[in-house]
């Protein structure tokens, strides 16, 4: 149950921040957001607030922000349509009923002659006295069809009406917010757990090792090796590993006193390369540093960003096979293992997953955010958009291929973890 709760919280946070990025920038661009959904498939819970429906859906495999104009939801009234119209105080149409299922008082019936529900917002038609009249339509009018209400989306509130820059940022904001979430997670870890100092402090000296024989003790702070100042543990490791069999002069600080040792790194038998070891263990000391926590959050975000790109490159070059990929099942099982190592390790895992989600969505593949961004870049270069039908077909094929990949990866996960 702890694993289930951890998975739900982590998954929910990653998807929420990703979709919230799309949502926030869409609202800032003046785009009508019809739905903000966490999860896919059948709706479990739905709450309408303002002009947006907020839903929680059954399948934990993603989420989406549905914007006006994206899914061909534009409403068209054709000549000959019989509609009912409710007017507001200004005489504008506030509700248009396509197929009347409810009885409304003071409803006006029209047989449509022509209409514009996108730009100029008007309806022209014949009333019950067969008189041709024109009615202005309110910008926030609602269209009811078969009992379902849809807020009218004037063209200037549709996704496609916005500039390339605003559309680009609306889509890019999803991955961007995943990177921001990762930064916040790592920063909070630094604030709560402390920031590693990476000082070259010896945590433990192994018995019968070159360091022990030279007189080095737990807690010694290495300050110099061969006259070269040592400021981090990585510098100490580099100096030792590259001098296997060569005597090295160590200067250490112990209880405020400076001591000198000569230690000869022995050749490690656990590596194919000849590297030196002196038999000391290290656990990075930490310190509480409010402002340093932000630097730590940025460092960890950049580190995992580079690491995931490196692993992605290995996959592209064939150093990894498709069996190395994990879907929801694999992520769930890994979360189960990671949770055993404590809260902070689980938080770090969530931060890494957030960066991974952001990078994967930026890949220039159809149906992903990166694929859509490529079409925006192409539009900016050409000076005109790609034909929507052609773009839609490309994204459709991409979705089918991604679904196929998801099925294969999920099946591999099931085979790996349960059989």
Automatic annotation (TrEMBL):
SMART domains: PDZ (SM00228). It is an enzyme of class 3 (hydrolase). SUPFAM superfamilies: PDZ domain-like. Its main location: membrane. Keywords: Hydrolase, Membrane, Metal-binding, Metalloprotease, Protease, Transmembrane, Transmembrane helix, Zinc. The chain crosses the membrane at residues 6-25, 168-192, 341-363, 392-411. Its cofactor is Zn(2+). It comes from the Bacteria. Residues 182-256 form the PDZ domain. InterPro entries: PDZ, PDZ_6, PDZ_sf, Pept_M50_Zn, Peptidase_M50. It is found in: Membrane. Belongs to the peptidase M50B family. PANTHER family: MEMBRANE METALLOPROTEASE ARASP2, CHLOROPLASTIC-RELATED (PTHR42837:SF2), REGULATOR OF SIGMA-E PROTEASE RSEP (PTHR42837). This is Zinc metalloprotease.
């Amino acid at each position: 149950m702890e694993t289930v709760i951890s998975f739900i919280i982590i998954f929910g946070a990653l998807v929420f921040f990703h979709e919230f990025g799309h949502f926030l920038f869409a609202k800032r661009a003046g785009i009508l957001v019809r739905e903000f959904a966490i999860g896919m498939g059948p709706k479990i819970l739905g709450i309408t607030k303002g002009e947006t429906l907020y839903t929680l859906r059954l399948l934990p495999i993603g989420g989406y922000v549905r914007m006006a104009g994206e899914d061909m939801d534009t409403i068209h009234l054709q000549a000959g349509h019989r509609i009912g119209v409710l007017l507001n105080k200004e005489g504008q149409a506030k509700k248009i009923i396509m197929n009347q299922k409810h009885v409304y008082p003071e409803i006006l019936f029209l047989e449509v002659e022509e209409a514009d529900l996108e730009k100029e917002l008007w309806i022209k038609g014949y009333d019950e006295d067969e008189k041709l009249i024109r009615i202005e339509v309110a910008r926030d009018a609602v269209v009811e069809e078969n009992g379902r209400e849809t807020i009218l989306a004037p063209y200037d509130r549709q996704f496609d009406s916005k500039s390339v820059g605003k559309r680009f940022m609306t889509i890019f904001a999803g991955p961007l917010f995943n990177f921001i979430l990762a930064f916040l997670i790592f920063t909070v870890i630094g604030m709560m757990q402390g920031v590693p100092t990476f000082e070259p402090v010896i945590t433990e000296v192994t018995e019968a090792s070159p360091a022990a024989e030279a007189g080095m003790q737990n807690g010694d702070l290495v300050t110099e090796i061969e006259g070269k100042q040592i400021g981090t543990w990585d510098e100490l490791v580099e100096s030792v590993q590259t001098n296997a069999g060569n005597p090295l002069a160590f200067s250490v600080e112990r209880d405020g006193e400076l001591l000198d040792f000569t230690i000869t790194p022995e050749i490690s038998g656990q590596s194919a390369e000849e590297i030196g070891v002196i038999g000391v263990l290290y656990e990075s000391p930490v310190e509480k540093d409010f402002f340093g926590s932000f630097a730590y959050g940025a460092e960890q975000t950049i580190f995992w960003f580079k690491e995931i790109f490196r692993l992605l490159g290995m996959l592209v070059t064939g150093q990894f096979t498709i069996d190395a990929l994990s879907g929801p099942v694999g992520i769930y099982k890994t979360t189960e293992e990671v949770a055993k190592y404590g809260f902070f390790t689980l938080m770090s895992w969530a931060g890494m997953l957030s960066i991974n989600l952001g990078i994967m969505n930026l890949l220039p593949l159809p149906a992903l955010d990166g694929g859509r961004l490529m079409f925006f870049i192409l539009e900016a270069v050409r000076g005109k958009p790609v034909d929507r039908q052609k773009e839609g077909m490309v994204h459709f094929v991409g979705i089918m291929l991604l679904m196929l990949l998801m099925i294969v990866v999920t099946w591999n996960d099931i085979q790996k973890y349960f059989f």
